[in-house]
Amino acid sequence: MIPSGLEHVQEIARSGDRLAVFLDYDGTLTPIVSHPEDAWLSESMRQTLRSLAARVPVAILSGRDLDDVRGRVLVDGIVYAGSHGFDIAGAGGLRRELGAACLSVLDRAETELREALEDISGAQLERKHFSVAAHYRNVKENDVPRVKRAIDEVAVRHRELRRLHGKKVYELLPDIDWDKGKALFWLLETLALEHENVLPIYIGDDTTDEDAFRALENRGIGIVVREQLQPTAATYTLRDPHEVEQFLRELTACLGSMTKLE
Question: pTM value?
Answer without folding.
Answer: 0.93
